[in-house]
Every structure is written in structure tokens, then in C-alpha cells.
Specification:
By secondary structure, the protein is α/β, with parallel strands linked by helices. The protein is built from 6 helices and 6 strands. Helix 2 links the parallel strand 4 and strand 5. It starts with 11 loop residues before the first strand and ends with a helix.
Length: 191
């Protein structure tokens, strides 16, 4: 599906970043525009460069350009360093502050658990709207070729989408639970 350009009412912008660790790993930062329960991905940083100064500048520039309401960086391994560096670059130029959150879930399980939500709520540019070798093109190739049937060399794109799905479904993190604190709650469930 094609992301809309205007006219759908209020928009809320969210970003998550699966930071680059080392080697051929990719940094993946998809830009999501939220309209109700739909998320349209209009831009992305998807880069495996080992020049971290260039990568940090590229990441800061996309955040400044899109000026998101919320930003979450994975804080495993080098994530805290990256988040700190990027925060210094965007302070005063972007409305949001970077929040960091470690991930402890198994990556494949996280992707599988969130795949239905991704399929039903996430929308991307049409292939005619980006070049195959652009960050967006590489990201889409990474996402659309992911499989659980074989070991894939890179799963950073789909992992960042699974991170986004978790973030929008449970923005405070942790496990969701239902608490009954009054007799009124008991009446609601027929106890």
C-alpha cells in the first residue's frame, strides 16, 4: 500500500532505532507517521557503514527533518552510546528526546509474535517511489526477504519493525496485565 501524503487528520510521528553493532550489521531507523491505528513508513535510515560519525550524522539528520514526537533506541551493546551521541546532535532541533530500552526477547520470537500486527497496521511506499539501492530500497528488500525457514544474514529491517510494533502496542514497556481493584471491576466481568 502507498503511504498517504495529507488529509487524514492528526498525525503522530514515532521512530525506533535498531542500532548498528559491528561488522555487516545494519542500523535501521524507520520513520513512522501514525494515523489512528495505521502506521505509514515514509523514510528510513538503513545503513551498514562502519564510519560511525557519518552514520550518527545521517541518523540525526533524519530525526531533525521529520521532528518526531517519540524516539526509542535499542540500548543493547552500543545503543546507549549511539543514543547519547544522537541526542547531543538533535537537542534544540527536534521536539523529542531519545528514550533507550534494552531488548531481552529472542529476536526471532519477537518478529514472529509481532508479524500479524505488522501485516495489518504497517504501510510502506510503493516500489515506484524509491530506488532499489537507496536506504528505503535496501530496507524493503531486507524486510520482504526475511524468512523463519532459514538463517538469514541480516534481519535488522524486520527487527526494527517488530520493535516498532511492540512500542506502539505497549509504549511503557513491560508486560501488560489486568488489575481488578474494586467491586465495580468485579461487576464488569460478572463475578
Amino acid at each position: 500500500d502507498v503511504a498517504p501524503s495529507r488529509g487524514l487528520g492528526d498525525v503522530y510521528k514515532r521512530q525506533v532505532c535498531d542500532t548498528k553493532d559491528k561488522g555487516t550489521d545494519f542500523e535501521s531507523l524507520p520513520i513512522a507517521y501514525q494515523y489512528g491505528d495505521k502506521f505509514f513508513f515514509s523514510d528510513v535510515v538503513f545503513d551498514d557503514t562502519t564510519d560511525y560519525d557519518i552514520l550518527d550524522r545521517k541518523t540525526a539528520d533524519i530525526l531533525i527533518r521529520h521532528n518526531p514526537h517519540k524516539i526509542r533506541f535499542e540500548s543493547n551493546n552500543v545503543g546507549n552510546r549511539v543514543a547519547h551521541n544522537i541526542q547531543k546532535m538533535i537537542t534544540g532541533k527536534c521536539r523529542a528526546e531519545i528514550e533507550t530500552k534494552p531488548t531481552s526477547a529472542n529476536k526471532e520470537t519477537k518478529i514472529l509474535v509481532n508479524s500479524d500486527y505488522i501485516a495489518k497496521h504497517f504501510y510502506f511506499l510503493h516500489p515506484s517511489q524509491y530506488k532499489a539501492k537507496s536506504d528505503y530500497g535496501l530496507f524493503m528488500a531486507n524486510v520482504t526477504t526475511y524468512t523463519t525457514r532459514a538463517k538469514v544474514p541480516h534481519d535488522d529491517g524486520i527487527d526494527s519493525l517488530a520493535m516498532m510494533a511492540e512500542y506502539v502496542q505497549n509504549p511503557l514497556g513491560g508486560k501488560a496485565c489486568l488489575l481488578y481493584t474494586s467491586d465495580a471491576a468485579d461487576d464488569l466481568i460478572g463475578v
